[in-house]
Write a structure and sequence with these properties.
The chain is 31% helix and 24% strand. It is α/β, with parallel strands linked by helices and 95 residues long. It has a single domain, classed as Rhodanese-like domain (Oxidized Rhodanese, domain 1, 3-Layer(aba) Sandwich), CATH 3.40.250.10.
Length: 95
Amino acid sequence: MIHKIPIIAYQKGEHDILVDLREETVYHFGTLPQAINISVNEIEKLYALPKDRHIVLFCQQGDYSAEIAKLLSDNGYEVTDLTGGYREWLVRSFA
C-alpha cells in the first residue's frame, strides 16, 4: 500500500526508513534530517531494505518517488511517498 503525504507535513516515525532518491552529489548539498541516500540509479539497494520497516521516499519534485513507491509497494513494502519533493520542503522551510 502507498500512502501519500505532503513533504512539509511529514513527521519521522521511530521505525521509518527515510530515503532520499536524488543523486549523491545533490544529496550532499542538503537533505531532510535522518535521510539516507539511495539514488534511483541504485534501485537494487532499495530491494535490500527490510520489508518489516516503513519506507518513506522523496526526490527533488516528487516524480521519481511516486514511481519507486509503486514498485516497492508491488513487491510487498509499506511505502509513503512524500509529495512535492525536496524542492517544496526547501521553499516552505525558508519562506
